[in-house]
Write a structure and sequence with these properties.
The protein is mainly β. The protein is built from three helices and 22 strands.
């Protein structure tokens, strides 16, 4: 079984909800400064153009690992398991670190083959990192691809994992999904999953696009009721972004992006409020039709 990809700055999980605020050429030389690996030997490989590419040997995973979570997507669902055993983690770290790797520009998320493996790691410094692997390529949380020949199926079956869960999700719910679900052309809808219909706001509550720039969307919420006896409409600042291509698909954020938003806000009759939603956690949205979806409102926009 061909396995490859890099355990670089390794792993963390991604969530689909974000928050907001109210108010082809030849393969170039490998990057020897890649955070995931370092050159340990002078071995070189020639290309068809006689370029010399250093062979890198990864030293990923840091000096210590507190936990390793393994996600496996089989085309129908995702199985998630975690391991905390220090001895087992040290063994896995040693095996992974011994694998020679080469940075490549030839990988594309459109060539993903099953199964897809995803990794979430909490290291000794308490940092959450993530990576993914498919068909011999390791994808780092920075979006770099490396050849990485390793038998992850055997690794999965060789240790006692804990807290197994099975999720009915697609590639979009895997670690590094941001890089697995889009390329220079745009979103790969085969790797996304259809969105649930948003909850519509109650009568007299409207949501509309108030302003838009490359990385900011401003949505105005209005309570148009004239009944001052009403207690007010409760809303939250949390949101997701959906992309439209015949149907709506939630799109993943960049690895490591965390947004902290306020909950339980109240909009009284006759009042309006603007929510400023920052889109930079999506790494620059490709052109297309989108909607911002809150827990009880939505507003469409176009890039």
């Amino acid at each position: 079984m061909k396995n490859s990809a890099v355990f670089t700055s390794v792993l963390i999980s991604i969530s689909l909800l974000s928050g907001c605020e109210t108010s082809s050429e030849s393969v170039p030389p490998a990057d020897t400064t890649a955070p995931v690996s370092s050159i340990t030997e002078e071995t070189t490989v020639g290309t068809e153009h006689n370029e010399v590419i250093p062979v890198e040997y990864n030293t990923l995973l840091g000096e210590s690992i507190i936990s390793l979570t393994l996600n496996v997507y089989n085309g129908q669902n995702i199985t998630e398991q975690v391991i905390f055993d220090e001895e087992a983690l040290n063994e896995i770290q040693s095996m992974i670190s011994a694998v020679p790797v080469e940075k490549t520009e030839e990988w594309s998320p459109r060539q993903i083959k099953l199964p897809v493996y995803g990794f979430k790691i909490i290291d000794g410094d308490g940092l959450d990192l993530e990576a993914a692997w498919s068909d011999g390529y390791w994808i780092t949380q920075d979006g770099e691809a490396y050849s990485f020949d390793f038998d992850f199926e055997t690794l999965k079956n060789s240790y006692e994992w804990m807290y197994e869960k099975v999720w009915d999700h697609a590639v979009a719910a895997m670690p590094c999904a941001f890089f697995l679900c889009r390329d220079e052309i745009g979103w790969i809808t085969d790797h996304l999953e259809a969105a649930e219909d948003p909850v519509e706001p109650p009568e007299n509550i409207t949501a509309e696009l108030a302003d838009q720039s490359d990385d900011v969307i401003v949505v105005r919420l209005s309570n148009n009721s004239n009944d001052e006896s009403e207690k007010g409409w409760i809303y939250n600042e949390a949101f997701r972004i959906d992309f439209f291509d015949e149907k709506w698909y939630p799109v993943p954020r960049m690895p490591g992006e965390k947004i902290y938003s306020r909950f339980g806000l109240i909009l009284f009759p006759g009042e309006s409020a603007e929510i400023t939603c920052f889109l930079n956690m999506y790494g620059g949205l490709p052109a297309g039709k989108y909607r911002l979806v809150g827990d009880n409102f939505s507003a469409e926009f176009t890039i």
